TrEMBL record:
Protein name per its UniProtKB record: ATP synthase gamma chain
Signal peptide: none
Main location class: membrane
GO BP terms, alphabetized: proton motive force-driven plasma membrane ATP synthesis
Gene name of this polypeptide: atpG
Domain of life: Bacteria
Alphabetic keyword roster: ATP synthesis, Cell membrane, CF(1), Hydrogen ion transport, Ion transport, Membrane, Transport
Pfam families (alphabetical): ATP-synt
Phylogenetic lineage: Bacteria, Candidatus Kaiseribacteriota
Cited InterPro entries: ATP_synth_F1_ATPase_gsu, ATP_synth_F1_gsu
Family (UniProt): Belongs to the ATPase gamma chain family.
Species: Candidatus Kaiserbacteria bacterium RIFCSPLOWO2_01_FULL_54_24
Length: 305
């Protein structure tokens, strides 16, 4: 049977652990609310921007644009994970989805280029011999769309040089505080099907940000683009592509803080449960010790009579 001292040490250890995890839970809860508000508020804008892109993508001018055409080259993966752990299966789920996508496309390592936003994804694929060209670490919650432009610029430069033929983004899509879904979306080449899929995952089925019941999936409108279609699309398409990447980042941040808050809450509850169980064990052992000592004293008194 364990000694009273060792049990008491474990109780103190669990209580200290619970204090730390509870503090981390409180911090994550504050960050979670801010990130959720930002991600949810941006859904309407992202959906509207992608809707514009969807209408343009079906036009003859857009279909001739370089970003809308398939070309030979490597496949670029933008992998959005967190810099820190303690968030349950958040990062591992994104990494698994990327590996599933690589297997489904039958891509060898030398045909893959990775842009890692977040240390966890970058370290994972670097250690496994993938070509992680760009790493963005310690990206704060307050990042703006212009800050994400650095990711978009790399994709555009590599695509224009013919080095990559397609680009895929992997991130955690925020569904609710207790539910996130790892998703993989193709963002280059830009097609109507790709935009339809992305908008479908941005707009929830019901609630404030759900599409109106009257909205219908219309085909591309006929646009007259001035002064020149190539000039306008060369400015507009990268901006809309950047919006899609930025919104994926907002969804990933909201998912990260939600998952970490839930993980820390579970850890706090478990620490309290273990401390409670050990306290009961401590009381039983102490009672057994007291009973044994009383018995020994009684036996001694009896022996002296």
């Amino acid at each position: 049977m364990a000694s009273l001292k060792s049990i008491k040490t474990k109780i103190i250890s669990y209580k200290k652990t619970g204090t730390v995890t509870h503090a981390m839970e409180a911090v994550s809860a504050v960050k979670m609310r801010k990130s959720q508000e930002r991600a949810l508020a941006g859904r309407a804008y992202a959906a509207a921007a992608l809707s514009v892109l969807k209408r343009l993508a079906g036009t003859a001018d857009a279909e001739r644009h370089a970003l809308a055409r398939e070309q030979l080259g490597k496949t670029c993966f933008v992998v959005i994970t967190s810099d820190k752990g303690l968030a349950g299966s958040l990062n591992s789920a994104v990494i698994r989805r990327v590996e599933d996508e690589i297997r489904s496309r039958a891509l060898p390592k030398n045909d893959i280029v990775i842009i890692a936003v977040g240390r966890r994804g970058g370290d994972y694929f670097t250690s496994r011999g993938y070509d992680v060209r760009v790493k963005h670490e310690n990206v704060g919650d307050g990042v703006s769309e212009s800050d994400i432009r650095m990711v978009t610029d790399n994709i555009l430069a590599w695509h224009a040089a013919g080095e990559i033929g397609a680009c895929v983004i992997a991130y955690q899509n925020f569904l609710s505080t207790f539910e996130q879904e790892a998703g993989v979306r193709q963002i280059v080449p830009i097609t109507q099907e790709m935009i339809t899929d992305m908008v479908k995952h941005i707009r929830p089925v019901k609630g404030k940000y759900a599409p109106a019941a009257a909205e219908e999936d219309k085909g591309p409108d006929v646009y007259t683009i001035e002064p020149d279609a190539d000039e306008v699309l060369s400015v507009l398409l990268p901006k809309l592509l950047n919006t899609a990447i930025f919104h994926a980042f907002l969804e990933a941040k909201a998912s990260e803080h939600s998952a970490r808050m839930v993980a820390m809450k579970n850890a706090t509850d478990k620490a309290k449960e273990m401390a409670s169980d050990l306290t009961r064990t401590f009381n039983k052992v102490r009672q057994a010790v007291i009973t044994r000592e009383v018995s020994e004293i009684t036996s001694g008194i009896e022996a002296m009579k």
